[in-house]
Amino acid sequence: MKQAVVVGSLNLDYSIGLERMPLPGETVSADSLRLTPGGKGANQAYALGRLGCKTAMIGAVGKDDAGRLLTGNLHSVGVDVSGIRESDTPTGQAFITVERKGENAIIILAGANGEVSADDVDRGRGLIEAADCLVMQLEIPVETVLYAARLAKSLGKMVVLDPAPAVSGLPDELFALADFVKPNETELSILTGMPTDTVAQCEAAAVTLLQKGVGTVLVSLGSKGVLAVSEGMESVLVPAVESVVVDTTAAGDCFTAAFVSAYDGDLKTALVYANTAASIAVSRPGAQASIPSAEEVKERL
Ligand code: ATP
Ligand code: RIB
User: Which of 59, 102, 223, 298 is deepest in the core (most CB within 10 A)?
Assistant: First the structure.
């Protein structure tokens, strides 16, 4: 992909490293606390920039240190941050527990992300016009996501939706506007109301999204890789690249961005690239801090 625009969230991540999550009513000690740039939208914009794709971001941060850290980090990898508005509402925050085995759990406080609106999209229209592809997630209001998807589609752009955090009852129109949707197994189950415990179940659930008009569903399967399900084509399972897992935070974000950066019409090649990039991301702590460069991905390939 030559040029991308991300409409989405920016969060300051508070990552707490610990042996295991407390049970309800239990107190446990943490090993570490790290404050780092995150947010699904910003992670994807950062990864696109770091992987060499010309990228702009539309979103909102507070007039605070966190906002400056986040926009500065995107700027450091060449992302155009002119579409990120400074709001009187504080920057979004994410509270992440990372267990020693690498599993994470996340609570988000939307902050300024909750105010990203159609007006922000209109102000960033030039960035969307200049891009080949619009990339979105669900940490900003769904009506804004739908508005941006409509605009991008009317301009003939590719639309990629990473439906995280997943919610049931998304408007069918959003699926009809999406060329690619990338849920993980749990998100796919929430979106469709269907079981996704096996690859066959994932495929059946993905088909229901194709029936709503999605071009291709990319079901990320963690350590098992990714299942691509497209209308009229045989489904493809591309295995993950083996890795030592340290922290899976932003693995999905890295996957989506790497897929977009590599996609030029050849699905399999872009999926191998995305699995490779994400396999590096899971081997490092943090969200944006874990994203590899294009050179690192080529080396691993
Ligand atoms: P996140 O942890 O960011 O929420 P996700 O749940 O959206 O991620 P996953 O399906 O867990 O997405 O992972 C995305 C991609 O990361 C996978 O498709 C795979 O390419 C890679 N990946 C995840 N876990 C592993 C692993 N244990 N080993 C190698 N690659 C992995
Ligand atoms: O996908 C990972 C991201 O989810 C974290 O960076 C956190 O900010 C939450 O938005």
Answer: 59
